[in-house]
Specification:
123 residues; five-stranded antiparallel beta sheet; 2 helices
Amino acid sequence: VILSQGGQAINENMRYRVYLLGKEIKDPQTGQSLGNMESLCCDVVINRVTPNLSYGVLDDIKVDLSAAQPGALQVRESVPGKITARESAAEAPTEKTVTPKKTKAPSSVAKEKASNKVEKDDW
């Protein structure tokens, strides 16, 4: 997705909550607009920020976005938390060394199980 926010408003490699704007709510007595209904849509993970735009990926989508109009999604608060596998896929892979576990020989495992056996009279 492309956001019409950038510069200092959005930070790269951050996750933000995104809300889908619904119908407008008006005060029944005055007719004054109280704003739009909002429903939690998803999160956006920001990949790149320019002075006027940001680029990101929608994640954890909770609503159908097929009919969403441009401008209907609003970025709100940042979301603290861990980076998911999808997010980390964009990062350079790091090499890890795995040390295999030592296993016991089958005969020593059988002897160990036999020695740990509890008899009925062992109270």
